[in-house]
Each structure stands twice: as C-alpha cells, then as structure tokens.
Design goal:
- By secondary structure, the chain is an alpha+beta fold.
- The protein has a domain at 1-11 and 28-86: 2-Layer Sandwich (Alpha-Beta Plaits), CATH 3.30.70.100.
- The protein is 25% helix and 34% strand.
- The protein has two helices and five strands, in the order E-H-E-E-H-E-E.
- A five-stranded mixed beta sheet has the order 4-1-3-2-5, with helices on one face.
- A hairpin with a 5-residue loop joins strand 2 and strand 3.
Length: 102
C-alpha cells in the first residue's frame, strides 16, 4: 500500500475492550473496508490497532471503533499518525492481522 491517498493511523482503545470480541470485530470491520493493518490486546487492558488506507475509509473505521462491538464499552481512543513501516508486523500474506498480546 502506498501513495498520497493512503493514511496510516495508530489507535489505542481503552475501556471494556478485552474479552468482548473487540479484536475479531475490528478485523472484520477493517477487512470489510479493504483496509490494511493489525490489531492486538495490550497487557494493561487496552486494544492497539494500526490501520492504513484511503483517508475517508480510515476515518469511517475510527468512528466505528468508538462504538465497537455490542458488548464493548469504549471510554477513549488515542489516535496518532503512523508509518507504513509499522505494517511489517502483520503476518505474511495477510492484509489485516490479529496479533498476539503484548
């Protein structure tokens, strides 16, 4: 993925976001929009997401993440710019990966 029409964002989602299917939900939401990236749980209870794609689709994904799956309660999302280099953490051959907890 490259080009001026691609943005990369790093999200740190806090609230009741582990044990409620948030990673699987984020994976499905990203794939549905054709976005690249990864999602993983953090030891402290947050969910970390890296997402890349066209600006409008990434913005729509972030808006959806503020709601999350029905059992989640999202208290806060920190959004920061990121680089395509961080996409290297994906599993080989996958456009979007669910990674292990860090």
């Amino acid at each position: 993925m490259s080009g001026a029409s691609t943005v990369v964002r790093h999200l740190l989602v806090r609230g009741r976001v582990q044990g409620v299917g948030y990673r699987g939900w984020a994976d499905a939401e990203a794939r549905q929009r054709g976005l690249d990236g990864w999602v993983r749980n953090r030891v402290g209870g947050a969910v970390e997401i890296l997402v890349a794609g066209p600006p409008d689709l990434v913005a729509d994904f972030i808006t959806a993440c503020r709601r999350g799956p029905w059992r989640a309660r999202v208290d806060d999302i920190a959004v920061a710019e990121a680089t395509t280099r961080e996409l290297d953490q994906r599993r080989p051959g996958e456009s979007f990966s669910v990674l292990s907890t860090v």
